[in-house]
Amino acid sequence: MSRPGTHTTPRLLLLGLLVLLVLPLLQGCWTLESYVVRVRIAADGSYTYFVDGSAAHAETVYAVRRADYEARTGKLKPEDVQKMKDAAEATLSKDLEAARKDPRVQNVKAVGGGRVRFTIAGKGSIGGGAVIFQEREVPLAYAQGPDGSLSIWLKDAVVGRNAEALGIHVDGDVSIKLAEGIQVLSHNAWKTPAVPGGAYRWRVENLSQPPPRLVIRLPKQ
Question: Is the pLDDT higher at 203 or at 4?
Fold first, then answer.
């Protein structure tokens, strides 16, 4: 469902939607598993986001699996296997300690096997004014074209990074709600709003899927 505004600017906003992977908690060696993403974009380009789910710490998962393999084959003594696991968990704990210092991280805790549960929330803006804008503390980056258009993307928007190698099944539920007056020009959502104020939704399951995409035009302010 598209909702054209009465007056619009010539700015075209391209939104590639996986907020999760830009956040410090999930950068680098983190791989998403089961999660939900909720984004609300206001008419002025400001937005809020909420992310809740689980992720695997690749380095820890690999280390724990190697320790289990060494235990099964009898190559290491039980105490040495435990030392390997303790070292892996120590690396995870260090990363979680750093993540908890980020004000956007509402909750994060280890649940065993190199996995964590997390809740993240924050806000940002996709306003204009810069040729290339990539502030580190917000999930969206954008580039301004010569015609005044803005191409918007999410940093490190990779679905299920390392998921196949880790044997992880990715199950992501992404939705975006748009303020009245924002015009939707195109999208690849699997479900569109049935009523005004509803959400565009995507199910993210594997790397072969096209990334969630939404092209919009903001109303003139």
Answer: 203
